[in-house]
Amino acid sequence: MASPAVSACPTCAIHVESIFHVAGLCCADEALLLERRLRPLAGVERLSVDVIGQKMHVAYDGALLTSARITGAVAETGMRAWLEHERPVDPPVSADDRWPLALAGVVTGAGVALQLLVPDARWAWPAFALSIAVAGRQPLRKALTSVRRRTLDIHVLMLLAVAGALALGDWAEAATVVWLFAASQWLEVRTMERAREAIRSVITLAPTDAVVKHGGHEHRMPVSRIEPGAILLVAPGEKIPLDGVVTAGHSDVNQAPITGESLPVDRTPGDEVFAGTINGHGALELRVTRAVRDTTLARIVHLVETAQAERAPAQQFIDRFARWYTPAVVVAAALVFLVPVVFLGAPTGAWAYRALVLLVVACPCALVISTPVSIVAALATAARRGVLIKGGAHLERLAGVRVVAFDKTGTLTCGEPVVVTITRVAGGDEGDEGDALAAAAAVEARSAHPIARAVVQAARSRGLEVTGATGVIVRPGRGAEGTWRGVRVLAGNTRFMREHGLATTAVERLAGELAARGETAVFVAVDGRARLGLGLADRPRPEAAEVVDLLRAHGIAHVALLTGDTPQAAAVLAAAAGVTDVRAGLLPEDKLAAVRELRAAHGPVAMVGDGVNDAPALAAADVGIAMGAIGSATALEAADIALMSDELRKIPY
Q: What is the pTM for the complete model shown?
């Protein structure tokens, strides 16, 4: 975020929305502490905390509150915050707690061994005291911060339990509780850091600047400063930086990251293009239609944020439980002591002992250890196998999933077109089919279009020689033409055939048949006659059907396909993969609605996708699974689980 967004607001003098980076934000406890400290501040309108990203989004009244006051309030919780677009004056240095924690564990073990081997227990307590001092620094700091904020949380309960154990003279119990608590927090922090590092290694940044054409001059400038109406130049292979309309040039554009279409689309003057899509072989000149904050990509990100906010009720339930548990235990311990002593005249010492025992027992490992050993083992094992799970809660939610919804392009398919059918055109010359295919490949070899590459690959896979074409001219949006062995060769779509008067009844009929099967038609004409019709399609992954069967074997009651591709292409893929619920032609908001419908009809939903267009659905699903290696930044941020490779078999695993 370049700067706080400021706009007029009818209910306040200055409406400001800022994103802060928060150092020290490692788990849900810190997020809850931030919310409890900041929500009561005068002027705070909305507040959301992202633990994975270590960010905090605050909407506030700039007339009542400043960013400096917000960062000061964060500092009171023991964390540090600064505006995302700024750099901290003194960058925080993350301490490595491994060795102090290991030392505390060794010392605790030594103390227990001394108790067992030496009858006189006096020699053991110094070891336990050292362990408590070393391992208890961070938990004690957080407990004191909670007390200062007049909040009783799990850190305070841990502190009371340790104090109770020490009052009872059970130094081993106190040291063990402190060490287990510190170890659990260290494991949780390390797990979160590994998640952040893995995501950073996969995410590729969207364009931050663009080449602007103005008054006969060209210069590069940040996209945040480019307004609608500006003319941009996009070189071959570059990402398109902003939404716009092509004013000059011809090219094929890979729109799969936004629309989910399996094949690149040809773009000519007058056609619309989207930010984040990838330009193909030709240079484009386009007029910007939307500023960076209003692009299709920005709207999708907004959908992601809205979908993520819908998870708040479940999180609030956990927060309410944690908020009331510690005070309830403290009150119960006080009653155990006061009622017998004050009202029944019972001995003070005996009932004080029982109250302290209650405090110690009320701090069980199942609650104190925020990342249970079983969860940590599962997360670590999954990470070694290339499955990044962003937290134990997501792992547990997988057990309740009853529906798995798949995106199509790049998820259940390979994402590259291939020639799947070769058909002679009725009425064409009875020449050799291989010669016609070799001729088409020789001409298409001069083009960088994915369809052209597929034709060349089809010829080479049949052992045909792909050389000898001369005078090749690539016609963007149509095909290519050239001379091969002294004859004129044309290879292109139905429109290209029509323009050259070669679209016979047989050609039109074959084009319709290929379209009905979900295939893209390419015709080959040699010496003035249409000879072959090639059907191209995005191949299903070889393991797609196996994965669907495995999911059903694991208790998944319903499998669905959600795609922005055509109904014909979706139907072909669904038949090959064994999916019966097919929903095609979906925009990002349609996929979001489909996830909600599936949840209402069948139960908890896991969504599997890879593109930006899948991000809202990934965020809305009970569990979002992103195909990591080819996944977009937004999809990875929205998902709960990332597959670091594109292997579908990881999903049943």
A: 0.53
